[in-house]
Design goal:
This protein is an alpha/beta fold. It is 36% helix and 14% strand. Helix 21 (675-686) links the parallel strand 22 and strand 23 (696-700).
Length: 732
C-alpha cells in the first residue's frame, strides 16, 4: 500500500469497509432469527473491491452492483436500513417487498441501476448508460461488477464488445473470486489472468490485488478518469477470494482448508488496519470511536427495519405498467447544445471509409429492397406492374365502423409509414435514437430507416454489432437516462437472442424498482414470403405472456404509423411487430401531423351480425377477403382488428360477441399457445352465456414455417380456410 491519499480518504475507505462487514454480520444474525426472506450472500474478504472501486466514482457517475457489492451501495449513499429492509422484504424497502437482496436502484439521485440474477446482463445495460451520458454531454462514467463465473456468459462478450466498439465511458470490475459457486476458476477459463480477455476487445485492462483497498481505489480512479477522458472502456481484474460459500446454506466444503487459511490471513480489513497504524492514521482510540459510531448507526437502522411492516397483499397486482401518477417519468438532462444532435447540424453523408481503400456509400434510396421469393417491389404492390400469381393480396372493403381519421390524403406503403413515424419522432424529440444492425449506412435490411442517418447523424442512428442482447440491454440503459431508443431487429426471429434482456430486465423494471424502460423493439415478422423457418416467425406470444411489456401488431399503414409514434411516446417497453408481407403490398392513408393511434384499442374493420372474426396483421386482410365471400352467401361477419395484443382490448371483443354470439379467431401464429387460446378463456369466463357455438380457430400449423412455396401455402391460414370455418360456425 502506498501513501498517496488524503487522511480523510484513507479513513473513508476504512469506515466503509468496516460498515460493509458490520452490515453483513448483522444480516447473518437476522438470517439466523428467520427475519431474512430468502437467501443471504456474503462478501466476506472482498470488501476492499466494492468499497475501493465505488469510492473512485464521482457523485454524478452511475453504478450497478451485483448481490455481494453492498460496500459499493454504502459508498454511493444507500442507507443500511434500506439494505436490511430489502433482505427482510419490508414495505418500506426500496422495492416495497417486490424483490430482495441488492436488487434495487435509484435513477434520480444516487444513479444506481438494479441488478438481476442473470449474470452479465448489466454489462450492456451499463454500456447504454455510459453512451447516454456521453450523448447528453454529462461526462459521466458507468461502472459495474462481474465475477469470474459470470465472465463466461455470452452477454459478457456482447456487452463488452459493444462498449469497446462505441468507446463508451465504462469501467468493468472483474472480481476473480477463484470459485464460481463450487467450480474453480481453472475449470472455467484457460487463462492465468482473466484481464487478458480485454485484449480480444482492443481495450486496456489492469490487474490489482483485490485485498489491498488503496491499490484497488488508485487503480479504479485511474481507470475512471481515463474512461471519462474518452479512452473507452477499461477492465479491472481484482484478484481475491470468496471466503464463505455461495450463500448461507453453502458450507463451501469444496474449498481446500489450506486455501481458506491462506486468504483468511490476508483479510483486507486487518491488512488495512496495519497500514493505517503504521502510517499513524489510525490509533486504538480512533478505531474504538469508529466501531461505536457504526454500532450506534446500525442499531438504529436495524430497529427501523424490524419495525417496518410487511407489504399489503394487494400491492402484488400494482405497478406492472408505468401509468398515471405512479409513473416515474425520466427526463433527459442535457448538458450540451441540443442543436448538435438535431438537423441540420446533425446531418451527415452516409459513407463507410475503409483505411487504405477509400470510401463506400449508402444507397441513397437507389438500391433495390431485399426480396424474398415472390415479395413484390413497392411499385408492383401499388398496381403499377405485374403482380406475382402466388402473392396473397390484401383485400376488403373500407370498414363500416372505424375511428375518425385525420389524414392528408397521401397514400403510402406500410413500409413508408414505418419510416415516416421514426422520422417524425426523431424530428420531434432529440431523445429518440435508432440502433440496430445495418440501420445506418444501408438504411435497414428492408430500407425502413433509409435516409435517417443522413438526417440525424451517427450519434442518433447507430449501426451495431450482431448482438441482440447488447442492443436491447444498451437501449434499456439509455432509457434510464431519459432517452427513448428504437431498436430494430433485422428479422423478428432473432429477437429470441435477446429474450433474457427483454423478459427479465426490461419488462420487470417498473414493477420491481420503479424503473420503466421506454424503449421500442421493432422488426419484420411473419411468413408468406418464403423466408423459411428462421426468417418467418410470429413470436408475439412469447412476449404477450410477459407482464410489463406492450405488444403491437398492426395491419394498415395508418395504424403502423400512428401506433409506432404512440409506442415511442409510451413510458413502457413496447414490442412492435411489422408483418413484412405487408411492407410493399398495401397502400393507405396515414395520420396527418402529430396524430397517434391509441395503444390497447381494437377497431371494427367491418360490421356484421352473424359472427365475429378477430384477427390482426396480415391475417386481417385474409379475414376481410373471407368476409366478402361470406357476404355473397348472406353471412355478414363482423371483423375486428386487434392491433394491440398486450394489453388486449377485451371490451371491444366482448361487445361484438354479445351482438353476434359466435367468434372465430384467425392468426398466423401456430395454434398451440396462440392468442386464440387466451381469447377463448376470456370468452368462457366473461361471455359464456352469449355464445351460441364454440370458439373456433384458423391458424398456422403446429410446425416450424416450411420453406417451399407449396408447403408454406399449406402451412398458412388462407381466405378459403377462414371461409370454411366461418360457415361451419354459423351452422351451429
Amino acid at each position: 500500500m502506498k501513501k498517496e491519499l488524503t487522511r480523510q480518504q484513507y479513513l473513508d475507505l476504512y469506515y466503509y469497509m468496516r460498515l460493509n462487514r458490520a452490515v453483513e454480520d448483522m444480516m447473518v444474525k437476522l438470517f439466523r432469527q428467520n427475519k431474512i426472506v430468502g437467501g443471504l450472500y456474503s462478501s466476506l474478504g472482498q470488501e476492499a473491491i466494492s468499497v475501493g472501486t465505488a469510492y473512485a466514482l464521482e457523485k454524478k457517475d452511475w453504478l450497478a452492483p451485483m448481490i455481494r457489492n453492498i460496500g459499493a451501495l454504502l459508498v454511493k449513499g444507500v442507507r443500511p436500513r434500506d439494505i436490511f429492509m430489502q433482505h427482510m422484504a419490508k414495505y418500506d424497502s426500496p422495492t416495497k417487498g417486490k424483490d430482495g437482496t441488492s436488487h434495487f436502484g435509484d435513477l434520480d439521485v444516487l444513479h444506481i441501476v438494479s441488478p438481476i440474477s442473470m449474470l452479465g446482463d448489466l454489462i450492456p445495460v451499463m454500456t447504454g448508460v455510459a453512451m447516454a451520458g456521453r450523448y447528453l454531454g454529462q461526462k459521466t462514467v458507468a461502472m459495474t461488477w462481474i465475477g469470474d463465473g459470470g465472465s463466461s456468459t455470452g452477454v459478457f462478450h456482447e456487452g463488452l464488445n459493444f462498449a469497446a466498439a462505441q468507446k463508451a465511458p465504462f469501467v468493468l470490475i472483474l472480481e476473480n473470486n477463484l470459485w464460481a459457486y463450487s467450480t474453480p476458476v481453472r475449470k472455467q477459463v484457460p487463462l492465468e489472468n482473466l484481464a487478458d480477455r480485454a485484449k480480444a476487445y482492443g481495450i486496456d485492462s489492469y490487474i490489482v490485488d483485490g485485498n489491498d483497498v488503496v491499490a484497488v481505489y488508485s487503480t479504479a480512479k485511474e481507470a475512471v478518469e481515463r474512461a471519462r477522458a474518452g479512452e473507452g472502456p477499461i477492465l479491472i481484474e481484482a484478484k481475491s477470494f470468496r471466503r464463505l460459500g455461495h450463500a448461507q446454506h453453502d458450507a463451501a466444503e469444496y474449498v481446500p482448508k489450506e486455501m481458506r487459511a491462506y486468504w483468511e490471513a490476508r483479510d483486507p480489513i486487518a491488512l488495512y488496519e496495519k497500514f493505517l497504524s503504521s502510517e499513524k492514521l489510525l490509533d486504538a482510540q480512533g478505531k474504538k470511536e469508529m466501531e461505536e459510531k457504526i454500532d450506534t448507526l446500525l442499531s438504529a437502522e436495524r430497529d427501523f427495519a424490524e419495525n417496518s411492516p410487511m407489504p399489503p397483499a394487494e400491492l402484488a397486482e400494482t405497478g406492472v405498467y408505468c401509468t398515471g401518477d405512479d409513473c416515474h417519468k425520466i427526463q433527459a438532462k442535457w448538458e450540451r447544445p441540443v442543436a448538435e444532435v438535431t438537423p441540420p447540424r446533425s446531418s451527415v453523408k452516409a459513407v463507410w471509409t475503409v483505411p487504405g481503400f477509400g470510401s463506400g456509400k449508402g444507397s441513397g434510396g437507389a438500391n433495390a429492397p431485399i426480396h424474398f421469393g415472390d415479395t413484390q417491389p413497392a411499385e408492383d404492390a401499388a398496381g403499377n406492374g405485374t403482380k406475382s400469381a402466388k402473392a396473397r393480396k390484401p383485400v376488403g372493403k373500407t370498414p363500416a365502423k372505424v375511428a375518425p381519421k385525420k389524414t392528408d390524403g397521401t397514400q403510402v406503403t406500410f413500409l413508408e409509414a414505418i419510416k415516416q413515424a421514426m422520422f417524425e419522432e426523431m424530428e420531434r424529440d432529440p431523445a429518440v435514437i435508432l440502433m440496430g444492425e445495418d440501420v445506418g449506412v444501408y438504411g435497414g435490411a428492408f430500407k425502413t430507416s433509409e435516409g435517417l442517418l443522413e438526417r440525424f447523424g451517427w450519434e442518433r442512428v447507430i449501426d451495431t454489432p450482431i448482438s441482440e442482447s447488447a442492443i436491447i440491454g444498451a437501449a434499456c440503459g439509455m432509457s434510464y437516462c431519459g432517452l427513448r431508443p428504437i431498436c430494430e431487429m433485422q428479422f423478428i426471429d432473432f429477437i429470441v437472442c435477446a429474450f433474457n434482456q427483454i423478459t427479465n430486465f426490461v419488462a420487470k423494471g417498473h414493477y420491481l424498482w420503479n424503473a420503466p424502460a421506454p424503449i421500442v423493439i421493432r422488426g419484420p415478422s411473419g411468413g408468406g414470403v418464403h423466408g423459411g423457418p428462421f426468417h418467418s416467425a410470429n413470436p408475439e406470444m412469447y412476449f404477450v405472456h410477459t407482464p410489463g411489456l406492450k405488444v403491437i401488431y398492426p395491419s394498415t399503414p395508418y395504424d403502423a404509423k400512428g401506433l409506432l409514434k404512440a409506442a415511442v411516446r409510451d413510458n413502457n417497453p413496447v414490442l412492435f411487430f411489422e408483418h413484412k408481407f405487408l411492407y410493399r403490398r398495401i397502400k393507405g392513408e396515414v395520420p396527418a401531423s402529430d396524430d397517434t393511434v391509441p395503444i390497447g384499442k381494437a377497431v371494427v374493420r367491418r360490421e356484421g351480425k352473424h359472427l365475429t372474426i378477430l384477427s390482426y396483421a396480415a391475417m386481417m386482410h385474409t379475414s376481410l377477403e373471407a368476409a366478402e365471400a361470406l357476404a355473397k352467401e348472406g353471412i355478414e361477419a363482423e371483423v375486428i382488428d386487434l392491433r394491440t395484443l398486450l394489453p388486449l382490448d377485451e371490451e371491444t371483443i366482448l361487445q361484438s360477441v354479445k351482438k353476434t354470439n359466435k367468434c372465430l379467431v384467425v392468426h398466423e401464429d401456430t395454434k398451440t399457445g396462440g392468442i386464440a387460446g387466451e381469447i377463448a378463456a376470456i370468452l368462457c369466463e366473461k361471455a359464456f352465456g352469449d355464445l351460441d357455438g364454440p370458439l373456433m380457430r384458423v391458424t398456422s400449423l403446429d410446425t416450424p414455417v416450411p420453406y417451399a412455396p407449396t408447403l408454406e401455402d399449406y402451412f398458412l391460414p388462407s381466405a378459403k380456410k377462414v371461409f370454411s370455418a366461418a360457415k361451419e360456425l354459423v351452422r351451429y
